[in-house]
Write a structure and sequence with these properties.
17 strands; Creatine Amidinohydrolase, Chain A, domain 1; alpha+beta; Creatine Amidinohydrolase; 13 helices; single chain
Length: 431
């Protein structure tokens, strides 16, 4: 295995959190992702569904998890189904988990082959009062492709139409958003590898390099440190490209005098990191670039201090907007009198800062969480304000990953430079 997994004890704790939220007599089912096709006989690399991974640690296709706390037989209260291997599969694809290995990794005593799932479910459902089915209820999701979980849910509901169905997603959003100690350590592992990649880039960047060459340097550092790659498609945007929020073609040439906005983060053990930094191609910011950069940095530092237990994210984002207004007025981009008369529903700062400041971070880079509930300790967020000025070919974003504790915040990227003088000094040293 390329990464060090979390302990079985952590996965037991995750399942205990879910069971605690279940109604009496509930039976919950979670499915893995499919291996998705490309064309001909090609397929995409397998990426496990985050919820079943969170509850079991099993990173393998055709896996099913069944949780039934009130089952008559204790052996039926947690059942893990994994794909049965064979000599042929071992030769062509590599060995799959044995039942013993699956138990050791997940902490689940009863491990059966996936082929026995249907019969086992049919045997146990007469004892159940309701069925918990999982679904992707992320605020940003808009997938057109049916997942394995959606397909299996339809099959189950068609076969057992008289059972009441409960939603697992709200509980999963709540328990996944509050990280356990080992999860925080795994995110820190991803952060540390991302930090190495950023240091490498500072030594590499110079006028004339292609954006994709910078991406290649980052990817190299990720893979050589045990990451399976990027947690999301990286943004390497120089000059005007930095004003395109989801610029991912990364095919332009970096020119002297421009600033590169880089948004990237590695995945390690399933957990994401998410870093944004803006650096000068020539190694030195102009006065205007420095002023805009420091304005963003001021907002980022002040916004971080607002992430506290008990705070609602909607209120937090409004306060960050006020911080940004002040900086944009100072830069001459907004007029103070116009801001005083603005429509509160259409704040003027949105012209230059049009995205949110923070999102949950974890197994997904835009991790799940309940925005209508207050922040609690153990949550991890990004803090990523930005200012984008297309007419000046300038976009600046600075992003760190922040752990919320009962005493304040822990900056997981605290060792990665973000001050103007630090960045310029490191780029000069690398030349």
């Amino acid at each position: 295995m390329r990464y060090t997994p979390l302990s079985a004890a952590t996965y037991r704790e995750h399942r205990a959190r879910f069971r605690k939220a279940m109604e009496k007599g509930g039976l919950a089912v979670f499915h893995s992702n499919d291996i998705m096709p490309t064309s001909a006989d090609g397929s995409m690399p397998f990426h496990q569904a985050a919820d079943i991974f969170h509850l079991s640690g099993i990173d393998q296709e055709e896996t099913v998890l069944l949780l039934f706390p009130d089952a008559f037989d204790p052996k039926d209260r947690e059942i893990l189904f994994v794909r049965e291997t064979s000599p042929s599969i071992a030769i062509w694809e590599g060995a799959k988990l044995t039942q013993k290995q699956a138990t050791g990794q997940s902490g689940i005593a009863t491990v059966l082959w996936t082929s026995s799932y249907d019969a086992t479910l049919q045997r146990l459902l007469p004892q159940a009062k309701n069925i918990y089915l999982n679904s992707n209820e992320h605020l940003r999701q808009g997938n057109e492709v049916e997942t394995r979980e959606e397909r299996k849910n339809k099959e189950l509901c068609a076969k057992y139409p008289l059972y009441e169905v409960k939603r697992s997603a709200p509980t999963m959003h709540r328990i996944r958003s509050r990280k356990t100690k080992e999860e925080i350590a795994q995110i820190q592992n991803a952060v540390n590898i991302t930090a190495k990649a950023f240091q490498r880039v500072l030594r590499f960047v110079k006028p004339g390099v292609k954006e994709y060459e910078i991406e290649a340097e980052i990817t190299h550092e990720f893979l050589r440190n045990g990451s399976r790659g990027h947690a999301y498609t990286p943004i390497i945007a120089s000059g005007y490209n930095a004003c395109v929020l989801h610029y991912i073609t990364n095919d332009d040439t970096c020119k002297s005098g421009d600033v590169i906005l880089m948004d990237f983060g590695c995945e390690y053990g399933g957990y994401a990191s998410d870093l944004s930094r803006s650096i000068p191609v020539s190694g030195k910011f102009t006065k205007r670039q420095r002023d805009v950069y420091n304005a963003v940095l001021n907002v980022q530092k002040a916004a971080t201090k607002l992430l506290l237990p008990g705070v609602y994210l909607a209120d937090y984002h409004k306060k960050v907007g006020v911080l940004m207004e002040k900086e944009l007025i100072g830069l001459g981009l907004l007029d103070k009198k116009a801001v005083a008369k603005q429509d509160p529903e259409k704040p003027l700062y949105k012209k230059y800062f049009m995205h949110g400041t923070s999102h949950f971070l974890g197994l997904d880079v835009h991790d799940v969480g309940l925005w209508h509930e207050p922040i609690v300790e153990g949550m991890v967020f990004t803090v990523e304000p930005g200012i984008y000025i297309p007419e000046e070919n300038l976009g600046i974003r600075i992003e760190n990953n922040i752990l919320v504790t009962k005493n304040g915040q822990v900056d997981l990227f605290k060792n990665i430079p973000r001050e103007v003088d630090e960045i310029e000094a490191l780029m000069k040293k690398g030349k």
